[in-house]
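Dear colleague,

Thank you for sharing your sequence with our group. We've completed the structure prediction you requested, and as agreed, I am returning the results in plain text so they can be pasted directly into your records. Please verify that the sequence below matches your submission; if there's any discrepancy, let me know and we will rerun it promptly.
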Amino acid sequence: MEIYRIVIDTNVIVSALKSKNGFSFKLLSIIDDKRFKVFISVPVILEYEDAINREKTRIKLNKNDIETILDYMCSICEERKIFYLWRPFLRDPKDDMFLELAVESESDFIITFNEKDFKGSEKFGIRTLTPKEFLKRIGEKI
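Please find the predicted structure tokens below.
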């Protein structure tokens, strides 16, 4: 069985925290699954926190619940340190940290709703998939 290596974009994390009804929530709820390995970095976790704070009026979780979720992610995801920067490479400079993490961790996919924002990532052998596409790929019932 192939174990996929992935990086999760901020928009997927924020979406999962906003609603329990989507594919983002489904992915986040199985984040410790053995069919894939998730990679994080300090800048990525800080970006998750920043985006969650910007959306806090639309997220129906309290601060303690959000901290618990992020702490859990930090405990089960594999942290990587980034020692090189190609910025800017992508259209949105904030997306470069996800591409750098994906390259450093030799990830197969960046899971995102904004696939067009990662145009060029294929040059590094990294594809983008939506949460739904990724869940289908690992055989999860949709």
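Summary note from our side: The chain has a mean pLDDT of 93.

Kind regards,
the structure core
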